[in-house]
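Spend some time on this chain, tokens included, and walk me through the fold:

. . .
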Amino acid sequence: MELTQLEYFLAVARLQHMTRASESLRITQPALSHAIAKLETEIGVPLFDRNGRNIKLNRYGTMFSSWIVQALQNIENGLQEIAEWSNPETGVISLAYLNILGVDMIPNLVKCYQASNPKARFELTQGNIGDINEQLEQGFADIMITSKESVSDDQEWICIKRMPLYIVVSAGHRYSGRSSLKMIELSGEPFIGLKNNCGLKATILSRFHETGFHLASTYDAEDLITVAGFIKAGLGVSVLPQTLGLMLEDLVWIPISDEGWNWEIGLKWRKDGFISPAAKRFMEFVSSSSIL
């Protein structure tokens, strides 16, 4: 059963005349008659009563036409909704991002983007690295904002911000008065690490690997705010980006004097995935923005 057959059927049902229906559809009458006959064969019942050139909907045709009108209207609504979602100016941008970025970075991006694109809408999903990766891979998110080290071979990524990492200690720690520290100076310190589902862990492990230095974690937390809480309680030290959601009282942020201790945040998307015009416009805005 084809969509054109259904459209032809409704035209004949409306005009109750094959010749006038074929003229309105701009096809030949034999072609129209063949299409209607084929539709009736597929359904298994006649849809019209025929008397010479006169044709009239029978009870099956009346029953069928009400459902077809509704079905075609649903299709039209679906096409209209897709057009609205993908339109660069009015479309929906499906964005997934790491939990910690929801405190300041993502709200600021959304606010600034909507200032110049007021009709744009966002569908936001936040979570740990596993959660948002699944959103991207299953096609529920157009793009992600995440760390570089979470990118796989079938994904594209561009950096939008480099955030310096700091050694973070409690206010009562013996290093709290230092203006800077080398990572080697943390040897023997209880270290608050991260579990694998946190986007920052891969970055920290990569930096450790490059320097040939390793710290054994005393605790592995689920997220960055938990790490900050453990540090505040005096249970250890860690390495964190200085973001708004982590700025707890009684924490001391010490610059790392070793080179390369940055956390790169960027846009990630699937190489084989469809990026809507609305999402593409947002990506262009973010990649060229100076607000980050």
Notes: The first helix runs from residue 3 to 15. The first strand starts at residue 48 and ends at 51. Residues 160-264 form a domain with the D-Maltodextrin-Binding Protein; domain 2 fold (CATH 3.40.190.10). The chain has three domains: 3-86, 92-154+270-288, 160-264.
